[in-house]
Each structure stands twice: as C-alpha cells, then as structure tokens.
Amino acid sequence: MNYLTEYCSTELNIKNSRFIAELFPVTSQMEARELLKMQKNKYADSTHVVHAFVIGKNAEILGMSDDGEPSGTAGRPALDVLKGSNCTNVMLTVTRYFGGTLLGTGGLVKAYGDSCKEVLNLAFEKNFVKPLIKKCEFSFSTDYTLYEKCKRLMSNFSITDLFEEFETEIKIKGSIVETEFENFAKQLIELSNGKITL
Hints:
By secondary structure, this protein is of the alpha+beta class. The chain has helices spanning 29-42, 75-84, 104-125, 147-154, 181-191, and strands at residues 2-4, 8-14, 17-25, 48-55, 61-65, 87-88, 90-97, 129-131, 135-142, 159-166, 170-177.
C-alpha cells in the first residue's frame, strides 16, 4: 500500500473542455469533505467538481461523486483509477469547464479516467508516492549503565518519534517498523541480560 506525500495537479483539454485533476493527501473523511467544499468554492464558475477518495490503513474508506455528470461516468472511473494505484489517504478532484461539445457517456468515462491517470502518473514520477510502512509503538526503561549500549542498538533499527525521559531510570519511547519489532525486543533482552523488556 502507498500514500501520497504532496499535492499534485495536471490539466487535460478534451474537445475544448478543461479537466483539472488535483491530488491531495488526506487522513480522514472529514478532511476530504472540507477539502471538497474548498474546491467547490475555488471553482465556483466551473461546470462540475468530481471527486473520489481512498482512506484508511487498508484503504477501507471509499467515497466519490459524479457532481451532476451522468451517473457512473465521472466519480466511478476516478475511484477505479485511485484503487488501481494501490494508494490510500488520497483524495482526487477533477474540475471540468464545459467546452461546448458533448462527449457522450463513453467519452466522459475516458476523459475522467485519463485525467486521473495523468495526475497519478505525475505524482509517481515526482516521487510524491511512498510505501506505507506499518509501525508500532514501544517503551522501556533502562539504568544509566546500559543507556549508551541501548542507543547504539537503536541506531541499527528504523526508529522514529524517539522520546527519552531522564529520572532515576531512563524511560525511552518511540515507534519502530512493525517487521523489526521482534528482532529489536530480542536484542534488547540479550544486551541487558534480561533486565530490560520492551
């Protein structure tokens, strides 16, 4: 599973209709709704502001709207492209300015689908799409004699959000890549001869 790190946009012109596709990183449905409101205000003079989003660790929250386009010709193709990209926590809007030529249902599906593919391809090209790595939180306490050894051990692992509190003992908290947790816990026990448990 991947996630988007930065905003990205592209524009296609199809039979004089402008299709402005924009990708946004989002983390909740509420954030997606707020963003959609902003987009509709920003493009108040447009014909349609179609959207689709995929949210959640396992891409379990989905949403979309045709925004007045014939049913199934805009939101569905956008959502299908998003789902096919293996991305989560992402919202896509495609703003259309009608150019005077009707595209027909097949033409609309293609136009919206192509707009979505174009902006996603650009996001991948620019390296705005990163793999989603599952992490878990950990904490342990150590005495001052083992602190430097613990620090050296931790530098061998993918640890983030490190927090240290120096009192009678040193309390250490952080996040570690889920797949490294077991090995880290084992090495920490060995290093401290069983005095430290994660």
